[in-house]
Design brief:
2 copies of one chain form a homodimer. By secondary structure, the first copy, chain A, is mostly helical. Chain A has 16 helices and 2 strands. Chain A has a two-stranded antiparallel sheet with strand order 1-2.
Amino acid sequence: MLSIKDLSALYAAKYNGERLGTEPKGLYEPMSHIMSIPGKRIRPLLLLLSCDAFGGQVSDALNAAHAMELFHNFTLVHDDIMDAATLRRGIPTVHELYGINAGILTGDAIFIYVYKYLCMLPPAILPAALELFNATAVEIMEGQQMDMDFEQRLDVAVQEYLTMIGFKTSVLLACSLQMGAIIAGASVHDQSSVYDFGMKLGLSFQIKDDWLDTFGESDKVGKKPGGDIIQNKKTYLLITLLNTISNDDRKELLKLFEEKDETHKVAAVMALYAKYDISAKTLEKADALYQEALDALDAISISTEQKVNLRTMAQMVHDRTF
Amino acid sequence: MLSIKDLSALYAAKYNGERLGTEPKGLYEPMSHIMSIPGKRIRPLLLLLSCDAFGGQVSDALNAAHAMELFHNFTLVHDDIMDAATLRRGIPTVHELYGINAGILTGDAIFIYVYKYLCMLPPAILPAALELFNATAVEIMEGQQMDMDFEQRLDVAVQEYLTMIGFKTSVLLACSLQMGAIIAGASVHDQSSVYDFGMKLGLSFQIKDDWLDTFGESDKVGKKPGGDIIQNKKTYLLITLLNTISNDDRKELLKLFEEKDETHKVAAVMALYAKYDISAKTLEKADALYQEALDALDAISISTEQKVNLRTMAQMVHDRTF
């Protein structure tokens, strides 16, 4: 078995700085731009270490791993247009640099390359791999739409929120892990367990992310604390509050949504979070989901030794050390 | 063998009014909107009649035929955003009705369903079908970028223009025809010939389309004559003119690009077209390509009887009676 570092290096050696094409420049330059923005490459790494854990040949999995990273970047390019985001990791977004039309076309073209790379898989496993990926991609689109819909609603149930973040964030992690298992020839039971592991880990990560935005130490989070509160963002915190709050406090909260004094707004919403014990409830949910991820890992039939990279990754994601 | 009418009816019976999904409504309603705009459904029809001509089972080809129509609609949704088009066949475009963000996401989601339908093909032919389709889709993106690039250039060679319209228009027709042949189990030689037939037919169609915008009878063309001239659109006519014009006339033409009096502009550019015999040169090229399409059809190994639908479709596309 290879180390996480080795797997990461194998991927980087093959794909860092890759150019998907050259002409027309107006198409391929923006594609290279987004792919060159440094990232954690967590999806390809999950695919590779899952394949390796299940005893597969990592060399067979590199193209599919790259397909996961390409797909993630396709969603970033189009999401950045939808969110009117000008920067990504401090670097101008594609549409900011090249215009919205180029941004749309760049995303579309990257999406086709996702399938070009997936189709390099051996024919025998191609139908199963594509069925998994197509279902995942549809869910990600549905999750993006749900996210936009939720911004207009005050009655989002906790379960609906979990479905949305599951679609938006977790399914691609889960798909990457299952794809690695498929390539390694793992059993259907193990494929399902490793998918479940990815789902629960992604959900736990996203809920902890919501918590960190409000309760994290700002020097560690790396962004202005309370940003979600200022934007009235429908986080796990806010949705849990909306689902437990008294009628009187609810009226106050709705007024706070309009509050212009940001310092007062953050303090007043945090007072409501304290009154309804939202911080502890949120951490409890994140921890419960993390535990469910570890349970799913336990259900996999490979040896504890073979699971070590998966367990280490889970720990690193949980501790924000990845 | 089935008639063109029967094949068209088979497709309509299975897919007209189809809903790809229901929730979230914000995603699936715009998808239904674009798919419900009436169209000729030429791409699925070409796929079905090619499959039928090569002796394949049309029932095996319906899902792939629908994938071609879905892909065409995906390009329409995103192209309409890029062109800021508010109407398509007199019906509001997706982004006009639902906003640009919904337009981007609608196109993306339709694109995934293209692959969902393609992946319903038998596993044995899936790799070949996907390889053809992926290559085609990349060319269409490259063609779209070339088209945008050409609008900024005055030195486009005729061959570059043919490559661009080949990518933008012809390759999806050619791909549909070859996909039908693949499903029917046609030989590689016949697959290549039927692809070539589609390429040449598409090129001939597009060049004739350019000619009709300027020289067609406006009641038949159904749009304001000279629209391309008014917009300085890089058509086969204008590119041929730019490649043959004297330096003095070129200076006049460049001035005409800035002319605000549309009636004068159209008349003056048409006078240059007359001086350089552009109408005849354009029709000659369209006819030569149509003849090459028929030659490609002749090269196919099936009987003249089996080719009758392909020949009839070519004639109908050529005569604008489809």
